[in-house]
Design brief:
The protein is elongated. α2 runs parallel beside α4 (135-148) and α3 (106-119) packs across α4. The protein has nine helices and 18 strands. The protein is an alpha+beta fold. The strands form four sheets. Strands 6-7-8-3-9-10 form a six-stranded mixed beta sheet, with helices on both faces.
Length: 338
């Protein structure tokens, strides 16, 4: 295993930031720590890095107990949200910095820097200063600098959080391709579900200092382990089990709330004996899909997602009377909000 976390806890005053976490991250994998603000994901990353010391438990890196090792001894690359580049150094000098501190031979430093400039698609920009680069380019320099020392583990803390949406999307696709080339064990923190699902091999969903679920993006989305996970990963309608839309589905008082994905709301223009009536209150065109907001006769409001083909087939209009039913819904004995 690349990283093993054993019964790790961390408290700041009366706040329990990380609470008895056990976690195994495979060598060479790219794993996202995902959760809302205050869930413990950044603290866990800092514990792995050695920037914080755990109150209990152990941190094992590439087979050795690193719990009490210094940051320098852990052989970790760390990339922060705000680049942390040296403004007075060129791109080439920024990338070389860690190697020069370690007194790496000059010929090896030069060769490695040129290799990394190619890898992060910044060849020809080595003599520029950070102020002469875009935000996306600066973040790639930060990644190259972290990779220059050939770390066993790469840690990314909200690496694209300071960038606009288009640059974020381009960079996360680039990060995935980069990881497939270098295969360094990588852990990154994000609160962006789409980002985590697009980039990572596995998701670690955290809430209130604990790990709620670990799995592939498909496993987490299709088989959430708890109400929290389902409500946090992807859009969802949360409805009382008594809603008319669930008639005959077997939900009872033991499952007070039922979770229904928008794409699992089936819409027809005619009743068929298994549907309930609704009214289209709003249609939102999102390019490749259409979002329909529906008011059920029992007063509940449901959001549905339709492909463009299905929308064109139904020919929906605002205020139109339609008939709906759930394709699939999930219920959990207990529900707690984000």
């Amino acid at each position: 295993m690349g990283i093993v976390i054993e019964n790790v806890s961390k408290q700041f005053g009366s706040f329990q930031a990380v609470d008895q976490v056990d976690l195994k991250i495979k060598t060479g994998s790219l794993v996202a720590l995902l959760g809302p603000s205050g869930s413990g994901k950044s603290t866990l990353l800092r514990l792995i890095a050695g920037l914080e010391q755990p109150d209990t438990g152990r941190v094992i890196l590439t087979g050795r107990d690193a719990t009490h090792e210094t940051v320098q001894d852990r052989n970790i690359g760390f990339v922060f949200q705000h680049y942390a580049l040296f403004k007075h150094l060129t791109v080439r000098k920024n990338i070389a910095f860690g190697m020069e501190i370690r007194k790496t031979p000059k010929a090896k430093v030069k060769a490695k820097v040129e290799e990394l400039l190619e890898l992060v698609q910044l060849a020809g920009l080595g003599d520029r200063y950070p102020s002469q680069l875009s935000g996306g380019q600066r973040q790639r320099v930060a990644l190259a600098r972290a990779l220059a020392v050939e770390p066993k583990v790469l840690l990314l803390d909200e690496p694209f959080g300071a960038l606009d949406a288009k640059v974020r999307k381009d960079l996360r696709a680039w990060l995935r391709r980069l990881h497939d080339e270098v295969h360094v064990t990588t852990v990154f923190v994000t609160h962006d579900q789409e980002e985590a699902m697009e980039v990572s091999d596995e998701l670690v969903v955290m809430n209130k200092g604990k790990v709620e679920q670990v799995g592939s993006p498909a496993q987490i989305y299709d088989n959430p382990a708890s109400a929290f996970v389902m409500s946090f990963i992807g859009p969802v309608n949360v409805l009382p089990s008594t809603s008319h839309i669930f008639q005959g589905n077997g939900f009872d008082s033991a499952h007070p709330e039922v979770f229904l994905r928008p794409q699992d709301v089936l819409i027809e223009t005619q009743p068929n004996g298994t549907t309930v009536a609704a009214r289209v209150t709003r249609l939102i065109h999102l390019g490749w899909e259409v979002q329909a907001e529906l008011a059920l006769d029992d007063g509940q409001v449901v959001t549905a997602h339709l492909t463009r083909d299905r929308f064109d087939q139904l020919k929906l209009e605002p205020q139109q009377r339609v008939f709906v039913k759930p394709k699939e819904a999930k219920a959990f004995p207990l529900y707690y909000s984000i």
